[in-house]
Amino acid sequence: MKYFFIAGEASGDLHASHLMRELKEEDPQAEFLYFGGDLMEAEGGRLLKHYREMAYMGFITVVRNLDKIKANFKLAEEELLAWQPDVLILVDYPGFNLRMAKFAREHGIRTFYYISPKIWAWKTKRVKKVKQFIDEMFTIFPFETEFYAKYDYPVRYVGNPTVDELAVRPNQDETFNTFVSRNRLSGKPLVALLAGSRKQEISNILPVMAETASRFPEYEFVLAGAPSQTEEFYSQVLKGRDIPVVFNQTYELLQQSTAALVTSGTATLETAVMNIPQVVCYKMELGKIARWGRPFLLKIPYFSLVNLIVNREIVRELFQDRCTVDTVSAELKQVLENETYREEMQSGYDEMRRRLGEPGCASRAAKQMVELLK
Question: Which residue ranges form the domains of the chain, and what is each CATH number?
Answer without folding.
Answer: 2-159+358-373 (3.40.50.2000), 167-356 (3.40.50.2000)
